Amino acid sequence: MMVRVRVPTPLRKFTNGADEVKAQGNTVRALVDDLEKNFPGIKERICDETGKIRRFVNVYVNGDDIRFLQNMETIVKEGDNISIVPAIAGGRG
Amino acid sequence: MLTAIPGRRFPAEEVRAPKRVESVLDLIGDTPLLELRKITEGISPGVRIFAKLEGFNPGGSVKDRAAWRMVRDGIESGKLAKGKTILDSTSGNTGIALAMIGAVLGYPVELVMPSNVSAERKRIIGAFGAKVILSDPLEGSDGAIRLCRKILEQNPQRYFKPDQYFNPMNAQAHYETTGPEIYRQTRGEITHFIAGIGTGGTIMGVGRYLRERNPRIRVIAVEPDDALHGLEGLKHMASSIVPGIYHEEELDNKVPVATEAAYAMVYRVSQEEGILVGQSSGAAMHATLEVARRLTSGTLVTLFPDFGDKYLTTNLWLGWRERLSVGNLNFSI
Fold first, then answer.
1. ipTM of the complex as predicted
2. Could you state, in chain order, the average pLDDT of each consecutive group of 10 residues for chain B (333 residues)?
3. Of A8, A89, A91, which has the smallest distance from its Cβ to B113's Cβ?
4. B224–A90: do the CB atoms touch at under 8 Å?
5. Which of B93, B133, B138, B237 to mutate to test the interface with A (most CBs of A within 10 A)?
6. Which CATH number covers residue B126?
């Protein structure tokens, strides 16, 4: 099952500049692992060494922050929109 | 000067009246310098550490200085004529400063910012009567810059754009005020100045002034350790469009700081020194202690860009109880 994942500017160096990529998995955890397979190095930026989402990264499933859902175990379904958004408005510029 | 020593009484003539001013803009600058004595445990006794508390500016941050200097220059040069609107892209404190200044001087203000800036910031800016235009959060401040350019291109005559990344008045504000204040407040004893880079205005302006007074003073910049970070207000230069006012060759050194380390330092500064600061101050403190550990003597000055009340709804404090039980911190809540 494929979902669309929107990627913020500071992580696009891993996705060859793409602002949106496809990923496979039934949970956010599985999606992140799938992203890592296709874009090595990206997981370490999103998750800390214990596998939890880093404090300054927000992941949204259809606009809802996964911290208020089931975190990494949040279920994703075909057609869901996932966004990885830095907690602050940084980036280039 | 009154001190906080219980039971001690002072004759009335020792009480100095606070200054009386005609405009809130007269309150910009002249911020206190605080010696930090607890968080410095383990540092050589010959090393003193001070923090310049920029949260005492009326708009709540160091950005009041640069914004005010850029607006003044706009008025003096005729670029900001009456009837024009102040427009800029900003992710935070500069927007608050411009909104406050616009309210005082009677200029309309429009600010473009990514929608993921903290709720407090958007509300503060709105409270000053300025208009907030939101851009795509995934595009970061780049997206805000692009949208701002588009708005400007559509109607160039209508706007004045201070452009803090390229306006030399940004650094000039610190050359004229922050630098001299620090030099006076340390009676010229400062040996190291350590501050974060956002636009580079603070470190460039203060650094230039201090070097002119004493070329041996070290100027050290603090930056996030990665392009993806949570240090609002700071910039990771290697992955950024370098601001026109930033000249890296004028720095002695740069200290990279991990977001988690800066956050941890925010909690320590609150609980050990009694000052609630923002994450960029946490980063500055972390880097300052790193520099201090390598010294046997010196007078180090860092700059705390703002206080922390604007960040209470951000990830900095999200789930903080859980986080405080890890590492070497042990707080009872």
1. 0.83
2. 58 72 97 96 96 98 98 98 94 92 98 86 94 88 88 96 95 98 98 96 98 98 92 85 91 96 95 95 98 98 95 78 47 35
3. A89
4. yes
5. B138
6. 3.40.50.1100
- Structural domains counted in chain B: 2
List own/partner pairs for B224-227 with CB under 8 A and 24 or more apart. Answer: B224/A90, B224/B256, B224/B257, B224/B259, B224/B283, B225/B256, B225/B257, B225/B258, B225/B259, B226/A10, B226/A45, B226/B258, B227/A10, B227/A11, B227/A13, B227/A91
CA-to-CA distance for B22 and B201, rounded, in angstroms? 28
Residues A6-36 have pLDDT tens digits of: 999 889 999 999 999 999 999 999 999 999 9
Residue A92, in any domain of the structure = no
> Domain range for residue A77?
2-86
**Is there a domain that residue B326 lies in?**
no
Is residue A85 within 8 angstroms of chain B, CB to CB?
Answer: yes
Q: Which pLDDT does position B315 carry in this prediction? A: 82
User: Does the annotation mark B63 as catalytic?
Assistant: yes
Residues of chain A contacting residue B260, judged by C-beta atoms under 8 Å apart? 48, 54-55
Q: Which residues of chain A lie closer than 8 angstroms to B142, CB-CB?
A: 9, 91-93
pLDDT at B19: 84
In a domain, A64, yes or no: yes
Residues 14-53 of chain A whose Cβ lies under 8 A from any Cβ of chain B: 19, 45, 48
Cβ–Cβ gap B230/A6 under 8 Å: no
Tell me the pairing of strands A20-24 and A2-6. antiparallel
The reported pLDDT for the residue numbered B14 is 63
Q: Domain with A34 in it: what CATH number?
A: 3.10.20.30
